[in-house]
Amino acid sequence: MRTAVTLTLMAAVAFATVQAQGHNPASAFPGQTKAPAPSKPSAPVDVHTLATGLTGAWAIAFLPDGNFLVTQNVGTMRVVRPDGVVLGPIAGVPGVKAIGAQGLHDVVLDPEFAKNRMLYFTYFAPPKGEPPGSWPVEFFYERVWTRPFSERRTMDLGTERVARARLSTDNLKLENVEDLADGAERRIVIARDGTLLVTGADRFRFYDSDLDGVDHDFTDNPDVRRNFTGRVLRINKDGSIPKDNPWLSRATVPASTFAHGLKDPEGAALNPQTGELWAIDHGPQGGDEINIIRGGKDYGWPDVTYGTQYDARQADGRKNVPVAKGLTARADVEQPIYFWVPSIAPSGMMFYTGDLFPAWKGNLFVGAMVGQALVRLELKGERVVSEERLLTERKARVREVRQGPDGAIYLLSGADLLKVTPR
Fold it and tell me: From 138's CA, which of 182, 194, 209, 277 has a CA 20 to 30 Å away?
């Protein structure tokens, strides 16, 4: 019979509920955490609710006809009209297994969408022979990390995938659906060279680990972390492998791997000044990070992290248990440019480039779920110089953050699609 402790843990992991976080790790350089408030607070904004009832909403894309395309974690895509009418679900979406933090996630339009109607999306596919559906969280966590590693290796829980498809001209159906790669299912960013950069969460079930860290390191076999921790894949739009991927000369690392050592990168965006990929990493208990993702680099998880293991899973009542050896830095590991302790549970990331909010141009925005805010970060090069939390009065989780064609900021918050404009 499940204990109250286990039930508390499942809620903490699946829904990013922050536990008491008493640790206070030292930063590697000034300004890496707890940046000051901006010298001038932002002017008030208006928040318009465009649509409601979008349970489990995860990502937004802006269709050329003015409609919104919204994914829901449970496995549905819907078109939302500008007047708030929610249509769908769109037919042709492949079967999705929604379990814990897995499900249907990002959707991104091809730059030539107006001509080719092509889009890309990420999802968690059920095992062969298993029908699509929503499963209790315990089947992905409690019934996995409590099992011996040798037993885990025989389990087929599902597969993380990135796919492409054509959206019919009437917006009612996905056509010519094609899986492009396995092993990642969080965010998709189209790089300047046209390749797809796809972030994926730590797949703890495939190596000697648990869902919020380990009590040992992997220095004896670094390929374990290269293959199974959260990674960024780099593929061409047809699923083929770019000829300059960083691990092509190492037979024991998948050719699609671009970077590794992440935990749960739920937000990603190209820096408009440099063209480099920036990603947020949703930590365990504390240790949420912003990283600049570069080819072949290691971002530490689970050997190096500013977070600790979840208090709720410690049967002996211990608090702030270190992950691995408790290292926050190592010479061969990239440092995040910014981190949060306690956790804000980040998801969604956007560089603002529009004209509607001139004072925000060049700022980085991050959604905070447990933090219940839209986080605005002022930057100077690769450093965060100030942090401001907006919309805190709403007391609502922010899952997705995207800039619209009109320069407004659009959010998915709870089951609502919101539009933020100047007052």
Answer: 182
Q: Which domain holds residue 45?
A: 4-59+183-422
CATH number of the domain where residue 372 is located:
2.120.10.30
What letter represents residue 285's amino acid?
A: Q
- The domain total for the chain is 1
pTM of the entire predicted model? 0.94
For residue range 98-153, what is the model confidence (pLDDT) as tens digits?
A: 999 999 999 999 999 999 999 999 999 999 999 999 999 999 999 998 999 999 99
Residue 156 resides in a domain: no
Tokens 């919104």, residue? 68
Q: How far apart are CA 288 and CA 294, in angstroms?
A: 18
The type of residue at 249 is S
In a domain, 148, yes or no: no
401 in any annotated domain = yes
How far is Cα 99 from Cα 323, in angstroms, rounded to an integer? 25
Q: Rounded to the nearest 5 degrees, what angle is found at the Cα of 283, between the Cα atoms of 6 and 99?
A: 50
Whether the CB-CB separation of 371 and 362 falls below 8 Å is answered with no
